[in-house]
Structures are given as structure tokens and as C-alpha cells.
Amino acid sequence: MAVGTLSIGLLFIAGTFMTGIYFSALAAEQTIAAVAADEAFAKINLYGINPENLADDQLNSFEDLSSIDPNEFSYPSTGTNTSQMQYSWSALCRRINPDPNSRLVQMSVFIARKTGPSASYRGGKGRPVPMKVGISAIAGQTRLTITEADKVTWINDGYTIVDDKTGQIYRVIERDAEQPDRIRLDRIWQGESAGWVWVVPPPAGGGKNPNIAIYQKIIRF
Fold this sequence. Notes:
23% of the residues lie in helices and 29% in strands. By secondary structure, it is an alpha+beta fold. A six-stranded antiparallel beta barrel has the order 5-6-9-8-7-10. Strands 1, 2, 3, 4 and 11 form a five-stranded antiparallel beta sheet that branches. β8 (169-175) and β9 (182-185) form a beta hairpin. The radius of gyration is 20 Å and the shape is globular. The relative contact order is 0.17. Mean pLDDT is 89; it is low at 17-23.
């Protein structure tokens, strides 16, 4: 009896210990993500972009519009080859005003981690980056349908997506097990009935979500 009670007690302790490790690791990554985002916004201000090259109804890759060195997207950046570093950032941008003379730009910074030393990522950048996925929606609902069959597995439970047209951020609550092209969001979809979202997909061979967090800021260039 005493041995059984002791065994049950040890199981509870072990479970609590593992839970504590998980939440400690999660808190550490959130701290890293916040610091990495601050560094990313500082670099965005430093390198800059020309808002005249942007539209107000779609997101564009900051990397494609700037002369920034690709090594600068790793965190922490050292100015040398940073391909082995675990953390990195990417940014999407859109002008927030239809006025072509507006200098205000919404920047969406994605902080991601490499989930394994041998993992390969889509996009050809050598690191996890946001990519576009076609979707359709019904007004007033929290469900989206992924319209590109080859990208159905790019969005899973717990992932975060950004609407290409508005820049609004949504969290994915679940992907339907019976209809895997259907996903449910944390709130009602505010975008168009057909369009695109941006997401950091899992590694090409499968694996856990590489995206840690998304931060947004409006910057005047």
C-alpha cells in the first residue's frame, strides 16, 4: 500500500516537473522573440524601404525590397555566416494609407526557430519564412478553407496567420480532421471572401511549428 502511494506521488511530481520545464522553455522563447523583434525593427529602420513601392492592400517581403544582407535576419546577428543559428526573423510590409505620398508602413515581423539541424524550409532562404496560402471564407464565420491542395498541411493547430489584404493577425484553433482543408480561427474573419494569408509553414519534411511570435509596428520611412 505504502509503495503504491509512493509510486503515485512520484508520478504526480514527475508530471509537474515536466510541465514546469515546458512552461519555462516557452517563457524563455517568448523573451528571446521579443528581443529579436526589437533588433529586427531597428534593422528595418536602418536599412529602410521606399513606401512608393508598396500597396495598401497586400503584403510584400521586406527582404525583397531592401538591400539588407541575408545574414542580418539571424538572431543574434554577428555579421558573419549565421546559417547555423537557431533563431531568425522575417518581415512583411504594406502601406497603411492608399495615398501614394504616405510614408507610413505597417511592418509585420515573424520570429521563428529552426526545429532541427537538418530540417529544410520552403522559400529558398535557408530559414523558416512566411509564405502565401490561398484561402476562401464566408462572412461572419471563423472558418477558412485552404484553396491550394498542395499547401493544406502548411497551416495546423496553434499556427498564426496574417491576412494579406489587411495585415490582421489570426490564430488557428484547429484544422478539421475530416476535412483537412478547413481551419477554425480564434475570431471572426474580417477579410475578403477569397484571398491569401501568410504563414510560416513547417519544415519540408514535417515537424513542429517553427514560428514563435508575430509583432507589428507602424513605421514612417
